[in-house]
Amino acid sequence: MRPVRLAVIVGSTREGRVGNAFGRWIADVAAARAECEVDVVDLVDFDFPAHYPRQPTAEVRRFAGHVGRADGFVVVTPEYNRSFPASLKQAIDFAYDEWHAKPAGFVSYGYRSAGLHAVEQLRTVFTELHVMTVRNTVGVDLCDADPLDTEDRRLAAVAMLDQLVWWAVALREARGLRPYVK
What we know:
The protein is of the alpha/beta class and 182 residues long. It has helices spanning 19-31, 58-69, 86-93, 116-128, 151-177, and strands spanning 4-10, 36-42, 72-78, 102-110, 131-133, 138-141. It has a single domain, classed as Rossmann fold, CATH 3.40.50.360.
């Protein structure tokens, strides 16, 4: 079986962010699985235009290329004011067909809510893009003493990745058999 190509999308570009550490952590957990090939797509590494361009820029095309090559996604998002950051929404909107009929899982973080309000907002956005979001998530409460790598988080990551890989393989096979109907 061809490896499942997972794009780990780090959604925060804020200075002083912790999302890049969570992105590296989940990328390492996923890469330890024999069936996964991981591509870390950190939005801070893209020079997106301030306004939505009439024609895609090279950076927009580069981002859409990462989305297009992926079989599934792990979106790493903070929760800002009960939602996800504008940088993530902008990037999501720069691709369209590339998202279709692929699964997404989430690693979210925030204070007390562990970023779950952001995840619920993202589920709505991804529904419109024909993305299958998996049930299990990894939520990190930044109030915890060790917010990064605990046994509970590792177990949550394994459960989320199990679902994500299953859907990625199933949807990849389905897309190979017949074009997705939009």
